[in-house]
Amino acid sequence: MKLFRGSSVASDHGTATAQARARLTRRSSGVAELTKMLATESTLCVLDLGSTSAANIRYLTELGHRIYSEDLLEASADPALAMKNSEGTPVLDDKRFLSENLIHPSGQFDMVFFWNLADYMDESLVKPVIGRLWSLLKPGGVLLAFFHTREAGPDAPCYRYHIVGGDMLEMQHIQTGRDASARSGSSPHLQRVFNNRHIENLFRDFSSIKFFLARDNVREVLVVR
User: What total of structural domains would you count in the chain?
Assistant: First the structure.
């Protein structure tokens, strides 16, 4: 697992602002797989882990499903979570974080859109959050996650993903409150790069895992509870 500590700041603030406003589109093999599941006549319960997306709410509710949304990246920016572990290393308080977030009954969700959170969240929260999501999924439930490859580099922008339909996503450049105050509105920076072995270990409690390699230096991972 390659760690990134710090990121470069763009010299052209105008360019950075324009990028923040722009929305790009990309095709997603993982979303295409989930679209087949969403075509069912049964009502599914879906957890969308990002800031509220009107596009995702509209898309899923029009298909007859229930959607819940939580912005875990923003929640993890709470300064009250900062602490040190037994070795004196700065970490975030995962127990407090999970006492305040992802509070749902076990086995509630059929589907979770985890997106790119593992790459941008503090490392001390990633495994505990994945563990909680395992418990929130129904047996046979699925989770979609995106992971950057090494070629993406430490300045890979953080995006909020909006489902347009079928296999198409719209990507919105985002920032958290913590990063906005610390780096004049810069995007959350990439914390680390997971290789395939690390990803498999991260989801070792799940029954199956499937990888899709995209052209934009992102691996899509579909796991089944």
Answer: 1
